[in-house]
Amino acid sequence: MDDSKKISFRQKNATLCPVCRNEFFREEMFTGGGRLIVEKLTDELRRVYKESKKFGKIYPLVYLLNVCPNCLFTAYPKDFSEVTDAEISKLQEMRPVRMNAVNKFFGELDFKADRNLMLGAASYMLAVDCYNVRRKNVAPTFKKAVSSLRGAWLFSDLANEYPDLPYKKMSLFFYKKAHEYYLQVIELLQNGNEPADAAGNMGPDADKNWGYEGILYVMAVLTLKFGSREKDVDKKIEHFNTCKKYLSRLFGAGKSSKATPSDLLDKTRDLYDKINESLAQWEAEKNS
Fold first, then answer.
1. CB 215 within 8 A of CB 231
2. Within a domain: 271
3. Inside any domain, residue 273
C-alpha cells in the first residue's frame, strides 16, 4: 500500500517485553500529509479531529502505549523496559486478570493487529491496571490519572459507535477514576512523593503538554463534572472549595505570566464561575 495513504507503520526494530520476553513491533502513527484536521479543543483539553475523506477517522491516542500482544503488559514507551524483578513477578502473576478483563469487555482482541478505537480503549484500561504495581520512580499515579482520562474519552467514543454495549458505563467509571487520581496527583506534586519529571508529557491529550497548569485545570473540570455526584453535601462543598483555591492560583499565575495560554485562562474563568454557582446553590440548600 502507498505510504501516503497509510495511517501507521511498524518500527523496524523489535521491542522486547520485559515480563514475558516476547518480541513485537511497535506501531507508530504517521504525521503530516493532511492526516489530522483539527476541529476543536474540548473543555477537558481533548483535541478533536475531523474525519478525513482520504484517511477516515484517526485517533492519535490509540498509538501512545506499548502493549505486549502475548501477556498484555502495558506501559508508556519510556517506562516499558525499566521494570524491576519485583514488578515483573507481580505483572506475571496478574496476566490472567488482564486477559479476563479484556475478554469481558471486548471479547477476542489481537494486539498484533493495527490499532483501532477498541484496541486503544483496551490499552488504557490495561495501563491503569499495570501502573498499579509500578514503583514511584515512574510517577504511576500521574500515569493512572492521564490514562484513566484518555480511557474515558475513548470509551465514550466507543459508546457512540456501539450504543447497545456497556461502554458508556465504562467511560463514566474511568472518568471517576481520573477524578480520584488527579486529586492524588496534586497532593503528590506538592509533597514530592512522586517525581514530577518522571510524568513526562502531562497532556492530558497527545498534541500539547499543558504542564502543571493543565493538571490543576483538569482536576477542577473533573470535580465540576463528577465531584458533584458525591452524595455527601459537606464533602462536595469541600472538594469544590479546594478546586476554587487551585483555580484562583492558576488564574493569578496566568495573569502575571505570558507563558500561560489565553484559551486556558478563559476556560479557567468560566470554570471558576460555574464552581461558584454550584457552591452558592449547595450552601443555600444547607441553610434552608
1. no
2. no
3. no
